Amino acid sequence: MEKIIPDVVDTVPNNIIKIHYPSGVDVNLGNELTPLSVKDEPTVQWPTEEGEYYTLAMVDPDAGEFAQVKHWLVVNILGNDVSKGEILVPYGGSRPPKTSLNRYIFLVYKQSGHLKHTETPIASGSRVGRIKFNIRQFAFKYNLGQPFAGNLYLAKGDEYSEQLRAQRLKEQQK
Hints:
This protein is an alpha+beta fold. It has helices at residues 4-7, 135-141, 159-172, and strands spanning 15-16, 18-20, 31-32, 43-45, 53-60, 69-78, 86-89, 101-110, 149-156. Strands 1, 3, 5, 6, 7, 8 and 9 form a 7-stranded mixed β-sheet that branches.
């Protein structure tokens, strides 16, 4: 799976996360998608066990000095209804540079119960607190074990992502 082992996790998850974007595209174990096609929050499904809680994470391990970047982090999801989970990091789509093909990795961890955490939720649209994340350390900190389910796509920068990057630079210069 695109060298996510050992770059991001230690084992291949036993289950696949089904991921469908409003643009009509699906994530399929390393297929290439455009930043424009993944800009909106997708629907996700994975096999669940009744009464169990899960953590969903989306990370980009290829963001250079900023890697890993948290693109999405939701804990205390009962079943796979993400909308009822506790959002620590709202969904943020891909913004890779045109010069590289980045991996965007979705992981689900089965929690041992309702997770009591010390994380500070991040505001929508904010980059603060998203960079230099490590999903392996997060899973260890909260005793989540190995990932229960996973999937990934690849993306290279396009005109849409370049516009977003230019807009961010402009805001930083204010």
